[in-house]
Amino acid sequence: MSSVKPQTLGTVMNNIYFKSRKTPNELVLRAGQKQYNEINVIVSNADKNKKLPHSNPFLVQAFIKQVVNRHDNIDNMKFTRQGKILFTTKDPLCAVQLLSLTTFMETDISTDVIWENICSRFLIFDIPVNTPLEELAKEIQEKNDMDVIEMRRFLKQNSVKDMSPVLITVLGTTIPDEIKIWFINQKIQHFIDRPRQCTKCYSFAHASRICDRTNVCFLCGEEHVGPCQGPEKCINCKGPHNAKSTSCPTYIKEGKILEFKCRNHITTSEARRVYH
Description:
This is Pre-C2HC domain-containing protein. It comes from Araneus ventricosus. The chain is of the alpha+beta class. The chain is 23% helix and 24% strand. The chain is built from 6 helices and 12 strands. It has helices at residues 24-31, 57-67, 92-99, 133-144, 249-264, 268-275, and strands at 17-19, 39-45, 74-79, 85-89, 103-104, 107-113, 119-128, 148-153, 163-171, 178-181, 184-187, 189-190. The strands form 3 sheets. The chain has a 5-stranded antiparallel sheet. The chain has a 5-stranded antiparallel sheet with strand order 3-4-2-6-5, with helices on one face. It has a two-stranded antiparallel sheet with strand order 10-11. Strand 10 and strand 11 (184-187) form a beta hairpin. Helix 5 (249-264) crosses helix 6.
């Protein structure tokens, strides 16, 4: 007989991440039972390299009236600078009908929800690392009337820790101060992401993978090869410190933007507009 113990979900790397098996449409319908301000549906060209044609709003309205029978519940429509169309509604059924579209005025499309508008994220701490996240999600949902969308365990590879924090995303824009798991009233903490910088140009406005700017030195903010010889100068605020400094006014401002985003359930770009 083999002496090798069978692996459980809690002992393999896929226990780092959990995602609900419910479809986006199912989750949006369930969101209707929670508290939220609005549901925003993004319509994009199925070809990610192309924008949607900027059609006459009258023609767009006529098309939507034909394919969405709850169109009267659309509160707003706008064309975005990224070549997409954003529909705003408070009606989950209307949102689902929009999400179900596959073509838009003869253009193949993809659709998605801006999840920040209808979800909350929080951290719980000291969760045993051998507890399957699927089991934890079930416990949270059954004991707290919550719908868990996804979970992520904060655990470094090859870590020997027995406990770890877990980041949880749930439907609804309000969360309690604590939740109950395993007879324990567990305090929770709102999750506010830290500012993230492009590692090429050190901007906070985009990720490195989409940066089309020239690489600069984070110490002096200039383009050069070899060790930096110049005085420290931040490329963002022009202050006498390097671009990675957490005391940089731009870094501090970005932190406030992310906190505003979290507490108001809006996107980063929306929060950034408030501060600019």
